[in-house]
């Protein structure tokens, strides 16, 4: 069921070049609408010349979307698309009837200041990779015109802050419009983002699995422990929350999970013959929670790939592939019971920021945002997969939303963040000087004094009490 050994390719320039997109790996079309799922597109006129740039997100209120910090750090002027299961590129955003009428400009971005946009240090881009963005005007959750112009009227999803809903063994679902399974090769300019929203059922794993998978990166174990959710296996709930496969009534008593050892398993083919390469069979069940210790990736062969990698022809020329690692490259695939190779279920490029959700009763809740995965030598997206947890970052999220709802209470909650050394970066985005015109919240501004350096986005680094420590101006579009 798994590839036993991979050589991973390290692309040195994360967020550089064209962003070809990767959809939910092994994803399936949705049968039930996910009205909270949104995607972010860069404005067609942008200093960032990314091809097919795309990030996911989750609508959590009429004003706010939860996404990845990396998605909103590199590109300034963004549009949010909600209520639409169809992917529309930034080149068509003013043409498609839905996006032309319903797109919303992003006017505010908030991230933890610990997040550092560092192309080569993976512990930096993975560290608290979560953000909250605000749209120019509130979504109307009773607007029936979405059903005519788009797919459905958008609706928010609740955020999970309870650790029990991200424990190993919990079924979850990841959503996105990215590639199906492959990383786009150098010089390939085709947009592989999928036309419609897809989902993949997945299973939350022990964090030890991801720490092992990313163990060549110093400090990643601490980041994973403190902020991440780890997944790898296919889950057993479909997009409606119903069981895909029902357990067979074969038990003749129960055995404690801790008592089950790998050598106790009898992995045989259905005809009763012993399977070939028994030491490489991995048939614990459809609910596997841990990779056996004897199935490991050679540290020298491991490289990690960030979901947000932007790799155009100019940047890809600087990518490195260590040919010495191919000498003993093992392409043996672990097999299913019938010997057919299969793949893991997770995320791929351009799924970054997309929602990881689970069920609380009959209701879906947001538990994480897509952050990272790996790629094989053949450019397949593989796990283990990393998501930034909403529960692990609950104080940050609560601080952002408290500011919107109760400034007094917000100061009390956010003070705890400062004591922990966490500050918030709040960036207000102005569209007044942008070719697409001002945002809705700026249309009442009758006069505008342009700054001397012609900037149109400012970032405030605030402490928990909202005090400005310093201000940085970002170059805008003339």
TrEMBL record:
<dbReference type="InterPro" id="IPR001254">
    <property type="entry name" value="Trypsin_dom"/>
</dbReference>
<dbReference type="InterPro" id="IPR043504">
    <property type="entry name" value="Peptidase_S1_PA_chymotrypsin"/>
</dbReference>
<feature type="signal peptide">
    <location>
        <begin position="1"/>
        <end position="21"/>
    </location>
</feature>
<dbReference type="Pfam" id="PF00089">
    <property type="entry name" value="Trypsin"/>
</dbReference>
<dbReference type="InterPro" id="IPR009003">
    <property type="entry name" value="Peptidase_S1_PA"/>
</dbReference>
<dbReference type="InterPro" id="IPR051333">
    <property type="entry name" value="CLIP_Serine_Protease"/>
</dbReference>
<keyword id="KW-0732">Signal</keyword>
<dbReference type="GO" id="GO:0004252">
    <property type="term" value="F:serine-type endopeptidase activity"/>
</dbReference>
<dbReference type="GO" id="GO:0006508">
    <property type="term" value="P:proteolysis"/>
</dbReference>
<protein>
    <recommendedName>
        <fullName>Peptidase S1 domain-containing protein</fullName>
    </recommendedName>
</protein>
<feature type="domain" description="Peptidase S1">
    <location>
        <begin position="14"/>
        <end position="437"/>
    </location>
</feature>
